[in-house]
Amino acid sequence: MRIRFSALLTAMLLWLSGGVAQEAARTAEIFDRSGDAGQLTIRFLWLGEQVADDKPGDCMILTSPDGQVMVLDCGHPLASQYVIDALDAMGVTRIDALVISHPHIDHLGGVPALYARYEIGTVYSSALVYEKSSYYRAYVEATANTPHVYLKEGDSFQFGDSVRVDVYNPPAEITYPKDYPTGATQFINNQSLALKFTYGESTAMLAGDLYAAGEREVVSRWGDALDCDIMKANHHGASTSSTSVWRKAVSPQITFITSDTIEDLSIAKKYTKNGQQMYHTLIDGCIRVQTPGDGTYTVLTEKDRTTTLFD
Ligand SMILES: [Zn+2]
Known about the structure:
Blueprint: H1 2-31, E1 40-44, E2 59-63, E3 69-74, H2 80-89, E4 94-99, H3 105-108, H4 111-115, E5 119-125, H5 134-143, E6 148-150, E7 156-159, E8 163-169, H6 185-190, E9 194-199, E10 202-206, H7 212-222, E11 230-232, H8 244-250, E12 254-257, H9 265-270, E13 277-280, H10 281-284, E14 287-291, E15 298-301
Parallel strand pairs: 3-4, 4-5, 5-6, 10-11, 11-12, 12-13
Antiparallel strand pairs: 1-2, 1-14, 2-3, 7-8, 8-9, 9-10, 14-15
The structure holds zinc ion (ZN).
Zinc ion binds at residues 55, 57-58, 104, 106-107, 209, 236.
């Protein structure tokens, strides 16, 4: 009995260590930039588990075909090490564009940690102010001496020589609700930057934490212009978002959900119908998607999927 048990244990340990080694190799591959030239690459980071009452948040590292680096949101302050590990693994010393989708802690909390370690070229955000939050104030202080571009719908800017970024939200005039910022979570999320990245024939939509009302408004203003091949599901895949009108307007072939939990399984499953693909950082770990600009995409995940939960 003892012999059989130890043989089983040895087999299990071998299998486990093989799995861990394989995953470490995959992690290294995801953050290896040697194949990035000529590609628009988006890396969706796993930022660990929830900290206190806050979500760990969003962080995407984008590289342009000519090697510019963009960090789009940078997670909760307690998740900063994940962001730093990823940037270091990529060999990044300078972040050309730091983009903040909206001023919540799980999207801008990591800004001071980035400033402590990297050179930052230009900051992009909306003009929304959120002085009540100490994390917002820390971000304002950290970014004070960096060129800052305030974006609104209708704007566009270049990411490297060949990627255009079009802005579809927030509107030009931000009308603050009475008593702002008391009870303004939904309002702030609905002011998220909605950014469409275009590289040749390839398109990607990244729109922060837009809620349903925000999605409907953006669709009513911009409609078919929002159409994209790939997309991040708004607000971590929660039921606050991913309205049918938004899903129809963007109509992505591939959707990425960034969360430490499955906020709503029925929302996640909406993105696996009719041949669409959906990746989820909880299940798949860090995710890299690359396109050479011809409308094709290659996805690499840190973990091999073993669940059939989304089928
Ligand atoms: Zn968020």
